[in-house]
Amino acid sequence: MTEVTGAPADVLHTLFRSDQGGHEQVVLCQDRASGLKAVIAIHSTALGPALGGTRFYPYASEEEAVADALNLSRGMSYKNAMAGLDHGGGKAVIIGDPDTLKSEELLLAYGRFVSSLGGRYVTACDVGTYVADMDVVARECQWTTGRSPENGGAGDSSVLTAYGVFQGMRASADHLWGDPTLKGRKVGVAGVGKVGHHLVEHLLEDGAEVVITDVREESVRRVLDRHPGRVSAVADTAALIRTEGLDIYAPCALGGALNDETVPVLTAKVVCGAANNQLEHPGVEKDLADRGILYAPDYVVNAGGVIQVADELHGFDFDRCKAKASKIYDTTLAIFARAKSDGIPPAAAADRIAEQRMAEARRTH
């Protein structure tokens, strides 16, 4: 059963569209005093309490925010299932520009809304929210992860997110070229912010040639200054995906990077990145396969962060988390093998495996 709390009429059709169905609960939150407008979407609790981050973003409309929360929360169900976690999928979005709207009062109000769900949803960081923000939210909500070590948390989850993506790249290289190394491969990283700049470190250590781009000039400059002469940059993503000799394309910013405009001009043979919801619409995964491009499903390879925040709920141990994130390599290879045996794209194979785990969990409840 889907429960919708506080929904204005103009977003109801988004909530009940056939391609968005299956969510257990969607809550629209508003606190006039602080200016908070937020959406909390719980897709599934079949495997356990829903777990997923809080995105703070200036959406053009409430309907757009709801749609993003629905997509992201569904993706978290699949991500948590494939990561072997005892958590379902949830996500929250806060509507507004975090640079101007974010305040202690707003974060505390948001924490009260999450707390009101009684543990059905566990929150964490995402685009526009940081460890310091989760420390504030946690003052009102015990179901908060991604906190600072000083406040009993694990700190920045982007470190293990990048590590997991790197493991996915290694598996992709092994599957396609028969060697689990990026040495001598040219890798293009689109977005070198929270996760991307850590990914660059792994790639350079492994001997890859790295090309980067980012909408924020300061992010590009930080990487170039840290690795003088070892990393090159291009003007934008459009230039990056057309880079001659590119072996791997790593989308590490917002979703929708793989679409009807980008897929036909991709020069890379592999797509493996940290961004969520990289496939803009159903069918893109087939377009990639038809072009002979190997796609490592985003929610599989970028699960290092959620592995970390889930571990925080049980007393964080970095080595334990890193060992679990290392298994992303094996999981990615298993997906490629399932895709080959079933004659389907890797994205469809990953969905089948995740859906099977969730279905088995429902039958035992």
Give a verbal description of the structure.
The protein folds into two domains: 3-69 and 90-151, Leucine Dehydrogenase, chain A, domain 1 (Rossmann fold); 158-304 and 315-320 and 328-356, Rossmann fold. It is built from 15 helices and 13 strands. Helix 2 crosses helix 15 (346-364), helix 4 packs across helix 5 and helix 6 packs antiparallel against helix 12 (304-312). Helix 2 (62-82) links the parallel strand 5 (54-57) and strand 6 (88-95). Strands 1, 2, 3, 4, 5, 6 and 7 form a seven-stranded mixed β-sheet that branches. The protein has a six-stranded parallel β-sheet with strand order 10-9-8-11-12-13, with helices on both faces. The chain is α/β, with parallel strands linked by helices and 365 residues long. The two termini are 16 Å apart. Helix content is 44%, strand content 15%. The radius of gyration is 20 Å and the shape is globular.
Indicate the topology.
Elements lengths: L2 E3 L3 H7 L9 E7 L4 E9 L5 E2 L2 E4 L4 H21 L5 E8 L2 H4 L2 H12 L5 E2 L8 H7 L20 H20 L8 E5 L5 H10 L3 E5 L3 H10 L4 E3 L3 H5 L6 E4 L18 E2 L12 H7 L3 E2 L2 H4 L2 H9 L5 H9 L1 H15 L3 H19 L1
Parallel strand pairs: 1-2, 4-6, 4-7, 5-6, 8-9, 8-11, 9-10, 11-12, 12-13
Antiparallel strand pairs: 2-3, 3-6
Helix pairs in contact: 1-2, 2-15, 4-5, 6-7, 6-12, 6-13, 6-14, 12-13, 14-15
What would a concise description of this structure say?
Keywords: Branched-chain amino acid catabolism, Cytoplasm, NAD, Nucleotide-binding, Oxidoreductase. The chain has 365 residues and is an alpha/beta fold.
